[in-house]
Amino acid sequence: MLKKERHAFIMHQLNLHNKVLSNDLCQIMEVSEDTIRRDLQELSAAEKLIKVHGGALSLSFSEVQFSSDHLYSPEKKRIIAEKAVSLVENGMFVLTGGGTTIVEMAKVLPPQLRATFMTGSIPAVNEYLKHPSIDVVMIGDKILKDSKITCGSEAISKIRQLNADICFLGINAIDSKSGVTENDWEVANLKREMIEASKKVVCLSISEKLNSSQPLRICGLDKITHLITELPPDDKRLSDYHKAGVIVL
Fold first, then answer.
1. Phi/psi at 143 (nearest 5 deg)?
2. Residue from 242, 239, 220, 230 nearest 104 by CA
3. Contacting residues for 139 by C-beta, under 8 A, at least 6 apart
4. What is the spatial distance between Cα 233 and Cα 53, in angstroms, rounded to a whole number?
5. Which end of the chain is more exposed for a tag (fewer CB within 10 A), N or C?
């Protein structure tokens, strides 16, 4: 790959997954660690990403509140958010993860909605606090600075005490065979616990993440009740998820 092609690939992966790992980029592009290190340094100097130990983060993670200036596919995420909100009813206990699509969902919650939202995501909490009538519960513990979400044994212990009506997860990758996958160990552990603590599990994903996978497996499709993308439910790309018994919106 030419440098321009490598940079474009890195930025596309970053836009899709919000985080990239240097080791993964080396394997996929078949280049050396030094090459990837230089690429990330150049993209960081150009203020296109945030270079961290072992990889890079999307610029959307540069602030406690995700910046709309750096939001990837905002129109698609707004469609997903509006579909997701249709599943929330008054009186529900709602458990949510983090990520830009979850924040978009928080922005379009109906002002008259009365429900309890529980999360360890600081950007999500910031949006929930703007709502006039929902209750907000912060699941606290050590904070992952990269993703701005709480993690650790205390957070997991609190999640295990929950019996949420519904859980909304912004996901990194999903495939009909591999299921839901992640690239962050601690986030993956949290998501597994959130799934087990909820009666319904809704995955939110732009269509570009369909039929892709990351190194860490969270669960199979049998644990997922709903999948929401920006596509119409009868789109051919969603047929495998229908066959697996997932409700597709």
1. -105, 130
2. 230
3. 118, 119, 120, 150, 155, 158, 159
4. 39
5. N
Domain ranges in the chain are 3-61, 69-248
CATH 3.20.70.20 applies to domain 3-61: no
> Length of the chain, please?
249
Reading the chain (249 residues) residue by residue, the pLDDT tens digits are: 788 889 988 888 887 777 888 888 888 888 888 898 899 998 888 888 888 888 888 776 655 555 555 567 789 999 999 999 999 999 999 999 988 899 999 999 999 999 999 999 998 999 999 999 999 999 987 887 767 788 888 889 999 999 999 999 998 899 988 999 988 888 899 999 999 999 999 999 999 899 888 889 999 999 999 999 999 999 999 999 999 999 999
In CATH terms, the superfamily for domain 69-248 is Translation initiation factor eif-2b; domain 2 (3.40.50.10470)
DSSP of 179-198: EEEES-HHHHHHHHHHHHTB
* pTM metric for this prediction: 0.80
